[in-house]
Each structure stands twice: as C-alpha cells, then as structure tokens.
Amino acid sequence: MTDQVVRLVLLPVSARRLHYREGQYISIELANGELRSYSPATAMAADGAIELHVRLHPQGKFSTLLRERSSVLSSLKVYGPYGDCVWQTPTSPDAPILFLATGTGIAPIKALVQAALSSGCTNPVWLYWGARHVEELYESAAFEALESRHPNFHFRMSASASDRDHGEPRYVQDWAARQHPDLADALVYACGLPAMVDAAQALLTQNNGLRAERFFADAFVSATAPAATPRPPADTLSVNATFDTQQPQQVTRNRLQLEPGTSLLHGLRAAGVLKGVCGGRQSCGTCRVSLTPHWFNQIPPPARSEQRLLQALPEAGQLDRLACQIIIEPALDGLHFSIPALAV
C-alpha cells in the first residue's frame, strides 16, 4: 500500500468463522504471547477473509516478521472481536455523521463508511483523514471515487507536515470543528492516534455541542507505546487479594499480591493471568472481572466510558467491572473477585 503500510489478509483454516461488526478490532498473538491489535478494513467476507492494514515499525517484532515473510505467519492465533466503535442509528435523516481518522486508523473507518453507503444511508456523511505526509493517505483515490458516486458523502484529507492552503486546519479534529459548529444531533467516530481521539472528544463535546454518548472511538495502544502504569513508593506494603478462575465444572481459588497505586489489571498481567488488549483505554472488555457485592460497593463507581463498554458486553453482569479501571489502595486489602471462563 505504501513503503510503511502493508495489506495483510487472514484466511480461516477451518469452517469456523470469526464474526465481527464494522469498526471492531481483533488481536493477533505472537509466538512470545504478545498481542497486536488491528481493525478489519472491510465488512465480513463470505470466505471468512479478514483484511488488515499494518504499519511497519523499524524495530517492531510483527513488522520484522512481515518484512521477512516469516513462515511463522503461515498460522496465526486470532482473538476477538473487541470494541463498541460500531454503527449506530442516526437520530434523524438529517443528522450529520462524522468520521475522523489518522494513519491506519482509516481501516475501520473505511469498513464503516462503505457499509453505511452501500446500505442506503442518506444522512450527510463527512470523512476527515489525516497523516503527516500526503503519500501516507493511501486510500484517498478510493474515497474520492465514493464521493463521486454518493452526493451525501464528503471526503477531506490533511497532511500535517505539508504547507497549508487557504488557512486549512492542520489536524482533522480542528477541520471538523470548524466546518460543523453545531453537532448536537451528530454521531462522531474516531480511530487512530490516541492523542487525536482524546483531542477530538474534548474539542467537539466542549465547543461544538456533541453529546458525549454519541462519540465512538477505539484508540487501542500500539505495542511500541504501551500505557504507563504508576509505580508505588518503594516502602508501600502490598495488598492481598483472592480470585476465582472459572472453567467448565471447576472453580479454582488463587491468591495475588497487588501494589497500591497500580491497576488491578497491572497485577493480573504481571501474574500471567490476563493480558488485556487495549492498554487500559476501556475499549476491549478483555479484563472484565466479577466482584462480590461487598467489594463492588468499596470501589468508586465506573465512569461513563466504562459503563458504556460493560453495557455493550452481552455477558457482563451487574457486579462486573474492568480491572484496568480499578486502582489498588490499602483499603482494598482482602479484595475478592472472579474471572470469567472466556477471559482465562
């Protein structure tokens, strides 16, 4: 696709298919157990093929395998799908739908846009795609073709390192905010760099009237930039916890020591119990745990973003929380919880 982006197509090795919705993402497990997350760039195919857009990093482990066309790639273990950045029904036939993307974040956006237009969506649809250089906007011709066929679809692209013409904004969120001062009835989808996603959410909700629950994003963290976990002081005592792992016809009790000031997911990951996929950005649900009523009430209530993800998980219960959002403190000494069978 470019010197830095390759198209990777995964084919199922059996009749079993991975079913996903446009906008969701999957994770690929490397030989050392590490995960890499990518969003399919197309809707589900009849043959089960999954198209991914992968950015090649100079020292990336998966990138190296792709460059060398390693035989390891002949069979990959895939997990998912994850995320709730999926199509939502517009509030009215006139409500604008905005898509913001940077870099390879265009992959799930492409799947969403194509599905919406092919299904007959007549709402005004705007796509803003940004990168540092014009040559990185590798799908621009395809979107320009869509724009020529669909009068309600509008495509704008921006290269932040290029010269600006006519005062055009440098970043996609600024361009969208300028062209859409009133987003009270809009739906907004954002995929790409976490910095863009966070900036877009803040800008459009605070300045343009966008309702927070109508902003959808899955900005999972790249393996090259893992989310930092606060470290406790050296003299801080650990917190004791117990948890049950659930397997068919068997429940196993486990003990765990946790560091105050870190997340519960940090402790579970260090113990090799859970991996987590999205880096604590509340978009995958793979660190879901079930608390007892007592401990559920001892933890601060979940933020709206955590509530929305838990509500989107059909298997989630009323006492479930995301381990990445539970911060360990001394008052949680004796914490008890269980981990669903699908997560272990």
Automatic annotation (TrEMBL):
It comes from the Bacteria. Its cofactor is [2Fe-2S] cluster. Keywords: Iron, Iron-sulfur, Metal-binding. Pfam families: FAD_binding_6, Fer2, NAD_binding_1. The keyword Iron applies. The keyword Thylakoid does not apply. Residues 239-343 form the 2Fe-2S ferredoxin-type domain. One of its GO terms (molecular function) is iron-sulfur cluster binding. CDD domains: fer2. Residues 1-88 form the FAD-binding FR-type domain. PANTHER family: NADH OXIDOREDUCTASE HCR, PROTEIN RFBI. This is 2-polyprenylphenol hydroxylase. It comes from Pseudomonas batumici.
